[in-house]
Amino acid sequence: xxxxxxxxxxxEGRVQGQLDxxxxxxxxxxxxxxxDALAGHDFTAIYCSDLIRVRQTAEPSARRxxxxxxxxxxxxxxxxxMFETLTYVEVREKYPEQYxxxxxxxxxxxxxxxxxxxxxNERSLKAVSEIIDRHPGEQILVFTHGGVLEMVYRHxxxxxxxxxxDFEIPNAGINWIEVTPAAWKVWAWAEVAHLEAxxxxxxx
Length: 204
Fold this sequence. Notes:
- By secondary structure, this protein is an alpha/beta fold.
- It has one domain: Phosphoglycerate mutase-like (Rossmann fold, 3-Layer(aba) Sandwich), CATH 3.40.50.
- Helices cover 38% and strands 15% of the residues.
- It is built from seven helices and six strands; from the N terminus they run E-H-H-E-H-E-H-H-H-E-H-E-E.
- It has a four-stranded parallel β-sheet. It has a two-stranded antiparallel ribbon with strand order 5-6.
């Protein structure tokens, strides 16, 4: 599983959520470097969020691997409602009470029109589980968002939704998950050796 490359909004600490923001120059270079890193692996299929920053990240890998890409809205980032378009600094100043609920990972806070953490977790795990079920015993490549990756990591490591995050989710980081009938297992996480630099702008 791969998080999308950097966007201008990532660099600014601005909340993207489900808004369709393209990669910046750094992100496009990260996408090419990711394709180089994955070229020697044997994948059966590629799945991807339908938002442009993820599609642009997946495209070089799809070309190198000569595989079609299946796009799905179910792999989109969490909907951040009233926070979207604002920087985290602006959110903290403009909506201190709502920011506190977000910071404390209140599972039922929906950004007054967005998506609750509980609901987002259910959507993310359902989307990934459906991909797994379609490809038993195969190695699949999934391009998605930091929030979806966080839900997968928490599920695999059995970490509660409301605990503070102590793991990285860098732009264009590569993450390896093994799924068996018994459990999901994190084999490797946040690999960035293929990149010159990578932000973890989700650390908030």
